[in-house]
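Lecture 7 notes: from sequence to structure.

We start with a single chain of 123 residues. Read the sequence below before looking at the structure.
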Amino acid sequence: VQLQASGGGLVQAGDSLRLSCAASESSNSYNMGWFRQAPGKEREFVATIRWSSGHIYYTDSVKGRFTMSRDKPKRTVYLQMNSLKPEDTGVYYCAVGSGILSSLRYADQYKYWGQGTQVTVSS
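Now the structure, written as tokens:
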């Protein structure tokens, strides 16, 4: 599976950005997620969608601010990020895996990764 992420940029705190990630293929066994990595920190889970059900899960720090969605025919997921904060800064990666529900937040459960897109939020 090849993933192409786009949409990052430099914004000010409180602004919005929308990230996109297009996959070369999809499967009802897949989960498609967003992770981010700030300089000097480990990659962390942001949100993921179970392709079969459309259920979406978020990390607590982005709930109410970020919204993940998908266009199933286009095999594309989006991450609408509102009310951005400086601590949201990092490289955002989309990823595809087929882990079970309890493992959705763990990066090692995702087999395919996109190239990453930089999001920088200035204060």
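The radius of gyration is 13 Å. Keep this in mind for problem set 3.
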